[in-house]
Amino acid sequence: DIQMTQSPSSLSASVGDRVTITCRASQSIRSYLNWYQQKPGKAPNLLIYAASSLQSGVPSRFSGSGSGTDFTLTISSLQPEDLATYYCQQSFSTPYTFGQGTKLDIK
Amino acid sequence: QVQLVESGGGVVQPGRSLRLSCAASGFTFSSHGMHWVRQAPGKGLEWVAIIWFDGSYKDYADSVKGRFTISRDNSKNTLYLQMNSLRAEDTAVYYCARESLGGYDCVDYWGQGTLVTVSS
To answer: CA B37, CA B96: separation in Å to the nearest integer?
Structure first.
């Protein structure tokens, strides 16, 4: 099975900050990498698919990059509503494993 | 609009069975692969199972393989998860999720989840 490792596990940032979350796969997954946002008490929401494609309706301050084994989710200017936990997921081969999550707090 | 509504959760004793359902509407159910994803209390997301649009392919997480069965009825627009030999570690919110048609197998819509508690 492919293991997904996110870092950091948690972070705290201020409104307007640039925030970066990384995700590493245990083997190459080409561009089969998705990012989800989960707000407290809610179902997850797709932000980025295919490593860098922005899902319809998602604010343009969210972006993704990477291929192979190393990937990044960037929030260009943090907003209060971005308080959430962020997960990467590989969809290269089943089981479609998730990273352990990155909890983002607003200072 | 796309809607996924799970049902069938509840409290069940270890070793017993439970069947979850997910009623889909607002899209052509028979065209999409479907997934189950779960989340134990206070924990992260765990992918559980996938079924192709026509039911011809299914796969499972190692943690549930041999105990859980995913199925679908395209005439009823409904997804199922049969859970047998339940264990305490199966306690979680179970989400039904739709796979996008974009070719990268991401999940683009999620249900609200149904809570399964395995406890004596």
So the answer is: 7
User: What residue ranges of chain A have pLDDT lower than 50?
Assistant: none
How many alpha carbons lie under 13 Å from residue B74 in its C-beta half-sphere? 14
Cα–Cα–Cα angle for B87, A35, B67, rounded to 5 degrees: 20
| pLDDT at residue B103 greater than cutoff 90 | no
Question: Distance from B45 to chain A by nearest Cα, in Å?
Answer: 7
Query: What is the rounded distance in angstroms from the CA atom of residue B8 to the CA atom of residue B10?
Result: 7
Chain B positions touching A49 (Cβ under 8 A) are 100, 102, 104, 106, 108
User: What is the average pLDDT score of chain B?
Assistant: 97
Nearest chain B CA: its distance from A42 CA (Å): 7
Number of DSSP helices (H) and strands (E) in chain B, helices first: 0, 11
B102 pLDDT higher than 90 = no
Which residues does chain A have within 8 Å of residue B62's beta carbon, measured at their own beta carbons? 1, 95
C-alpha torsion angle, residues A29, B93, B26, A32 (rounded to 10) = 0
* Both structure tokens of A39: 């707000």
Looking at residue B33, what is its pLDDT? Answer: 97
